[in-house]
Amino acid sequence: MPERALKVLPVTPEPAGVPIDCRNCGAYQLCMSLWLKTGDSSLLERVVKKKQVFKRGEVLYRMGQSLEYIYVIRGGSVKTCINTEDGQVQVMGFHIAGELLGLNAIGNRQHNCEARATGVTSVCEVSVDRFEELAREDPAIQYEIFKIMSAEIRHGQELLLLLGKHNADERLAAFLLDLSRQFAQRHCSATEFNLSMSRSDIGDYLGIAEETVCRIFARFQDEGLVSSECRHIKLNDVERLRQIACHRPFRDL
């Protein structure tokens, strides 16, 4: 069965000359700091070295690889994971269009996880050296970077709380609400979207067995909270999902 397209909601008009596929990007304010200040779009081309497309399963970067680029997801989705010493894989996060990857490697110039496309994914590769040079020169760019990193730190803290204090039903409900908020921020439907990750990956991320994830999804459907067709999900009762998640926002950026 062909995968359904995401429902995209109308967006407010952008300044003239801004590419349409940039308007929902996580690096938008960084680029606009350069563009609006100089009026020179060629400056962006010198920072964004190239645009890449990865097929499902292809690796953007591997654990231990030297940091060269910050990756900005233009379309598609990526999962980040760590290979443990005993050969197991721990999913660290799922990332959709508009998010930045690789910021956590700036400190030691080495990636501490693997990033793999979960579907056809297009990205901008931003030169780290040029990125840092511009950040040193422009306080506005520094401020935008601080905001992005602050959001990532808060997300990590909320994930620890979710895993430590919530049961399996609450974790899955919070996970779906988190995706809902992310899609809403990108001007897509907050109640109807595709899950790019497998049930196994969801369970790994949330610290519960794949069978438990499938069982909870089935119960949520029986209770009318969600509708599911393959990987296409529709949230029918967001308020009830919030009640199950104990009204604790998982990622309220």
Automatic annotation (TrEMBL):
Species, as recorded: Nitrosospira multiformis
Name assigned to this protein: CRP/FNR family transcriptional regulator, anaerobic regulatory protein
Gene3D superfamilies: Jelly Rolls, Winged helix-like DNA-binding domain superfamily/Winged helix DNA-binding domain
CDD domains per the UniProt record, alphabetical: CAP_ED (cd00038), HTH_CRP (cd00092)
UniProt KW keywords: DNA-binding, Transcription, Transcription regulation
Domain Cyclic nucleotide-binding: 54-128
SMART domains (alphabetical): cNMP, HTH_CRP
Entry superkingdom: Bacteria
Keyword match Transmembrane helix: no
Pfam short name (any one): HTH_Crp_2
Residue ranges annotated for the HTH crp-type domain, each copy included: 166-239
PROSITE patterns in UniProt: CNMP_BINDING_3 (PS50042), HTH_CRP_2 (PS51063)
